[in-house]
Structures are given as structure tokens and as C-alpha cells.
Amino acid sequence: MVLLINNEDVERLLTIKDVMRVLDEAYVDLDKGFTANRPRTFTFSPTENGRFVANTHEGLIRSKDVYDIRIVTHNRPDPTVDPTRVNYFHGALNCSLDLLYDINSGNLLAIIHDGYLQKMRVQATNAIAARYMARKNANSMVLIGSGWQATSAIESMRFVRPIQKVNVFSRNVENRKKFVQQMRAVYKDMDIQDFDTAEQAVRGADMVVAATNSKVPVCKGEWIEKGMHLTGVLPYEFDLDCYKKADYIVIFNRLHGRDYTLRRGPEEEPLDMPPHAKLIEGAPEIADLVSEKVPGRKSEDEITIFANGGHGWGHDGGPGYGIQFTAMAKLIYDLAKERGVGRQLPLEWFQQDVNS
Q1: Kind of pairing, strands 95-102 and 108-113?
Q2: How far apart are the C-alpha atoms of 206 and 227, rounded to whole Å?
Q3: Would you call the peptide bond into 77 cis, given omega within 30 degrees of 0 as the criterion?
């Protein structure tokens, strides 16, 4: 049987502890050469009312005998028409699926909704980096952003550090105030406050976590103080001065993300290079931290940055690893089988007896 597992099932099944465990294992396997990744690809086409986007990742983990392909498809506003809405698609219906396969039989094991999985993947990755790079006694964090990704940032960071205070800023005042009320209801033992400016929120905090879809910096280097740890989800959330002030930078990876369009593709170099690209040349990757090939924070005064997200090629944080989706899909599948969660579909629906 093939399990169909939706977002509500995934949310009930996953804990940040389990997610971080399987991602740690995946990074160690990556370092040992026991995994295979196809870099993230975007496939674009103009449509009648915007632009079609397909976003895919693939990963195989030999120790778990599984392969996963993640496929996200949606239609969203064309950035050539309105650049401010390039990432404006959250909340719209889309097909975002992980297909998990057994590599020994080639059979499909599960079809999994990807939304909640993706949110947990990103923030758990940032938390794994913070486990090595943030001060051990860090008890305050800034959260810039109040959208989908931000909802799991507090849970992730307080799993690795004794966070007691959270300063929240986002440019959308209504969303920010609503988000703060929601988070106060969830984390009753924490001091969660909203701020009218990012600078007010950042000053004096131990950690800065950006969780936005911004194409321009949301945090400036002039606000950053000794001992802070910075992390985000996109390449442009921290300005050039943040990177110049940093004593230690770790990037996610150097995979080469690829873009395909009707006019060209794939490009031989990334289309957009952030201004800090030169400053992260030679920076270690998260797999180096987890496998202990490089140290974490070396002193209490160090300013550290974990650069997460982007096109890759060593110019920014790098795109998602296919093996992250593989590790999490396998975790979800195992938990669903154990707890009787998900809808069972006949395997015969997906098999054929002719060669492709």
C-alpha cells in the first residue's frame, strides 16, 4: 500500500526533536559519501495570468534505503510585471508533494503534503546551526517576520537555547500583532513582544532570526553587537555590513541551483549574486559543523552568521538539500505506519508492467 499523508497528519506526527535528529543523521551520511543529491531546479513559464513555477529537489539516503523527489508547482505573479510580488503566493492553492520510494524495490511508499514539512525543515536547519554557533546562554532572540516560516522559529530555537524573550518585528503591523498574540497563547512561559522597528527589536538581543520573503535587507550591521548570532532563510535579509562585522560565517551548502525557462537554461552561473558573496568564499558548510570537521563558536564575543537559502554556487547560503526532504519524508512515513495515520492507496494504481 501507498500512504497518502496530508499536512494535518504531518503536523501531528513531527516534533522538532525528531526532525533535528534525522537531519543530523543525514548531514553525517552526506559527509561520509552515503547520499546522493540533485540540486534544486526551478522551471518557469509565463501563463495567462502570471508565471508558472515548478520547484524540485531529489535526494537518496543509502543507509535508509529510500529516495525522495519533492515537487512544488504553482502559478504566481510575474516579477517582470510587479517585482514586489515575486514571492506573493503563500496561502494560494498549490501542489506541493514529496514522493518517497524504496530503493530496493523501486516501489512508491508515500505521497506527502510538503507545506508543514518544508517549514520544519528550514527552521530545524537554522536551529542545528545555532546549536554550534550561538552562545550557550543565549536567552533572547529577535524574530523578523510574522508569516508561515516564522511560526516554527521560536519552537526550533528554544529547543537548542534557553530562550525566554522574543522580540518580534515585521513590516505588516496587523500581521505582526496577530502573530504575537498567537505565539503568546502557545508559549505562555515566554516574554513575547512586538516592536515598531527592526532596530528597536534587534538592539541588545542574543540572536537574530529572519524569516521573511524580502529581497532587501531587513537587518543592518550597525545594529549588531558583540556575541550575536544571525540566521535567516534568504540571502538578502542581512545587509553587507552584517557580513563584514561577522567573525565567523557558516553556509548551508555550495550546491548549484538551476533555473530553466523558455528562453534559456540552465544558466551557467547564478542570476543574482548578493553583495556579500566574496565574504563567504571558503566558509564551511553545515555538514562540516555536524560532522565536527570545523568548530562552532570560539568565543563569547564572536559575531556569527549562518547563511541559509539562495541559488548556491558558493555565493550565498545555498538551496535546500534533497536529502533533507528524504530524511524527513522517511521519518513521517515511519511514524504514520506506526500510529496508523494516513490514507492507504493500492500500490497497483502506481505500477505498470511495461518499460518506461
Answers
A1: antiparallel
A2: 7
A3: no
Give backbone dihedrals phi and psi of 252, rounded to 5 degrees, phi first: -70, -55
φ, ψ dihedrals at 162, nearest 5°: -75, 60
Instruction: Count H helices and E strands in the chain, helices first.
Output: 9, 15
262 phi and psi, to 5 degrees?
-70, -20
- Which single residue is written with the C-alpha cell 519524508? 329
Longest dimension (CA), the chain: 64
- Give the position of cell 513555477: 53
Q: If DSSP codes are grouped into helix, strand and coil, which group holds residue 26?
A: helix
The answer to whether the pTM exceeds 0.90 is yes
Handedness of CA 314, 320, 326, 331 (dihedral sign): positive
Nearest to 219 by CA among 198, 193, 197: 198
- Where does 116-170 show beta strands of DSSP type E? 140-144, 165-169
Grid cell in block for residue 4: 497518502
Q: What is the pLDDT of residues 155-195, one digit of tens each?
A: 999 999 999 999 999 999 999 999 999 999 999 999 999 99
Q: Contact 154/128 with Cβ under 8 angstroms?
A: no
Neighbours of 195 (CB within 10 A): 18
For cell 535579509, name the residue.
Answer: 237
User: If DSSP codes are grouped into helix, strand and coil, which group holds residue 173?
Assistant: helix
Within a 10 A sphere around the Cβ of 320, how many other Cβ atoms? 25
Query: Treating both helix axes as pointing N-terminal to C-terminal, what angle do 16-32 and 153-160 enclose, rounded to 10 degrees?
Result: 70
